[in-house]
Amino acid sequence: MAVTPRTVTVTVTAADVGSLDAVGRAQLAALGRSWLGRDVDSAEGFFRALAEEYGEPVEGMELCLTAGAPDGPAAYDLWYDPGTGTATSFHAGTAVEGGPRLVQHTPDPDAPGAELILSARRTPRSVDELTAVEHEQLASVIGPETLGEFLADEENNVELAEIRDTGGTLRHRLYAWNYGVSYLFPATGTDPVARSCQHDVEHWHPGQRPLFAAMDTALRRPGHGFTEPPRFCWRDDACWADPEPGAAGPAGGADAS
Question: From edge to edge, which strands make up the β-sheet containing 194-197?
Answer without folding.
Answer: 116-122, 159-165, 170-177, 181-186, 194-197, 200-201
